[in-house]
């Protein structure tokens, strides 16, 4: 008999609401602060985001309805399949049952369109016709380009220089969807010009690109432009929870009552949150689940950076957010997982770490590529370099289960495919990638810039 290797949901069984962890996070969330160090209200964000998304950003409602029109667009590729990785299990000789949620089947190739569609839709409802954004690996930029093209809006993307140079096809995807993509730092904004004057050869960073995109949005005199962020913020995590909510139903169809281990890679944190938060809810309510967020050793935000207030961008245009941060002017080494090179991590994930609900882990890049190649040669999918971190942790957990003889279930988020990222694979095959753990002095230097910032109350439950 043919074994079931994948499960979809019928359209009528798709989740109709997003899950908002802000309603349940035991330690609560620290408020964002303005330049004077005082908590800001929703109005302070109005030049940057439309009010309907700001309302979601500050909401503590547990369940938020997904508008019918958004569901209609998402249903073009959702539900995404949940696969059972029989071939990988066999290769590893593990008693663990390994599942992966395949977000690579979206038109842009990753989980990012889940929030891109929602954000473009809410902006349009609010009368906005043009969005600006940044992109690291190019996945987010192409997702927003796709979303804005469906909704008839304009889009401008500031792409981190190293990825712009390494991934010309991502730029062409954005162009195919009608967006403009330029390398960051650029000479188009004050923030970009200042960075270029100080560091003419910089490979760029997400923090710099965010500064440029925010500036480009708020300086549009027509008022018809807003900025869109692909990760980190509460409303982005919210939109991604459709991943975990679908996964729960799909695991049940596989006959699983609950997963033992849930894994996702973490840049700003959105794909991890998307899969994990519905399970964090179960964990808060007593379920025994290990939830692991994985980052690169070269940009160890969750595992080694302090928790404190910092800006989301290099030019300090965003409010101060309470999060684990390596410092807003940290420029991570140019590793190949461009989407994981961010100095901070979502405030909701930071608090979930403090609350002991999420266990962070850092893995070296060669182990990640080795895992990605094993995965390609068993399951067949060539994953994004970012996703390879989740694959590596899933393999670590499956090997541990073999050593301990435990028949556990593991589910990880396959956040995107790597078909536009093969240059990284080439460097791995040529033996050009080395492992790099960020030196302690480098962390000490970079967090000095935020040492005088207000300190959040650390509340844990
Ligand atoms: C495929 C893929 N996975 C993961 C990430 C990391 O972002 P996040 O932590 O917001 O999911 C990115 C970011 O570009 C990505 O492209």
Describe this structure in words.
- The chain has helices at 51-58, 68-74, 86-92, 113-125, 139-151, 161-166, 168-176, 190-198, 206-218, 234-240, 242-253, 270-284, 301-304, 347-354, 365-378, 385-404, 422-429, 440-447, and strands at residues 6-7, 17-19, 63-65, 82-84, 97-102, 130-135, 154-160, 180-184, 225-227, 261-265, 290-296, 307-311, 320-324, 359-363, 409-414.
- It is α/β, with parallel strands linked by helices.
- It has a domain at 6-13 and 64-109 and 234-450: Rossmann fold.
- It has a 7-stranded mixed sheet with strand order 1-4-5-15-10-11-14, sandwiched between helices. The chain has a 4-stranded parallel sheet with strand order 8-7-6-9, with helices on both faces.
- Helix 4 packs across helix 10.
- The longest helix is centred in the C-terminal third of the chain and has 20 residues, at 385-404.
- The mean pLDDT is 95.
- Residues 110, 136-137, 139-140, 231, 265-272, 339-340, 384, 386-387, 415-416 line the site of pyridoxal-5'-phosphate (PLP).
> What's the total number of strands?
15
Distance linking N and C termini: 49 Å
Strand order of the largest sheet: 1-4-5-15-10-11-14
User: What is the CATH topology descriptor of the domain at 6-13 and 64-109 and 234-450?
Assistant: Rossmann fold
Q: Number of helical segments?
A: 18
Helix content: 25-40%
Tell me the overall shape.
globular
So, CATH architecture of the domain at 6-13 and 64-109 and 234-450? 3-Layer(aba) Sandwich
Instruction: Point out poorly predicted stretches.
Output: none
């Amino acid at each position: 008999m043919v074994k079931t290797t994948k499960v979809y949901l019928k359209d009528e069984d798709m989740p109709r609401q997003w899950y908002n962890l802000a309603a349940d996070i035991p330690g609560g969330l620290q408020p964002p602060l303005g330049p004077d160090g005082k908590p800001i209200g929703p109005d302070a964000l109005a030049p940057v985001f439309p009010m309907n998304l700001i309302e979601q950003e500050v909401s503590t409602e547990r369940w938020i309805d997904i508008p019918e029109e958004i569901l209609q667009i998402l249903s073009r590729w959702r539900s995404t399949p949940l696969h059972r990785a029989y071939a990988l299990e066999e290769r590893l000789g593990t008693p663990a049952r390994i599942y992966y949620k395949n977000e690579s089947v979206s038109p842009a190739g990753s989980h990012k369109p889940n929030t891109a569609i929602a954000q473009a839709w809410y902006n349009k409802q609010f009368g906005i016709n043009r969005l600006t954004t940044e992109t690291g690996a190019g996945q987010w930029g192409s997702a927003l380009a796709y979303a804005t093209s469906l909704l008839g809006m304009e889009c401008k993307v500031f792409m981190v220089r190293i990825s712009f140079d390494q991934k010309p096809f991502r730029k062409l995807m954005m162009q195919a969807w009608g967006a403009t993509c330029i390398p960051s730092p650029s000479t188009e904004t004050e923030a970009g010009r200042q960075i270029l004057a100080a560091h003419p050869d910089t490979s760029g960073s997400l923090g710099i690109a965010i500064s440029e995109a925010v500036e480009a949005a708020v300086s549009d005199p027509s008022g018809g432009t807003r900025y869109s962020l692909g990760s980190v913020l509460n409303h982005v995590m919210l939109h991604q929870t459709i991943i975990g909510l679908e996964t729960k139903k799909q695991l049940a169809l596989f006959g699983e009552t609950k997963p033992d281990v849930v894994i996702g890679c973490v840049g700003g944190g959105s794909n991890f949150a998307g899969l994990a938060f519905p399970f964090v809810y179960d964990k808060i309510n007593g379920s025994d689940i290990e939830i692991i967020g994985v980052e690169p050793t070269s940009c160890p935000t969750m595992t080694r950076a302090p928790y404190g207030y910092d800006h989301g961008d290099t030019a300090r245009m965003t409010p101060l957010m309470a999060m684990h941060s390596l410092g807003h002017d940290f420029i991570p080494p140019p590793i190949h997982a461009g989407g994981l090179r961010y100095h901070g991590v979502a405030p909701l994930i930071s608090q979930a770490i403090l609350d002991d609900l999420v266990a962070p882990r850092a893995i070296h890049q060669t182990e990640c590529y080795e895992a990605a190649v094993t995965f390609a040669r068993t399951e067949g999918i060539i994953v994004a370099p970012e996703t390879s971190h989740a694959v590596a942790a899933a393999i670590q957990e499956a090997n541990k289960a073999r050593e301990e003889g435990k028949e556990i279930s593991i589910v990880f988020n396959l956040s995107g495919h790597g078909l536009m990222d093969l240059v990284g694979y080439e460097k791995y095959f040529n033996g050009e990638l080395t492992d790099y753990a960020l030196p302690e002095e480098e962390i000490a230097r970079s967090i000095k810039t935020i040492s005088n910032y207000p300190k959040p109350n650390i509340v844990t439950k």
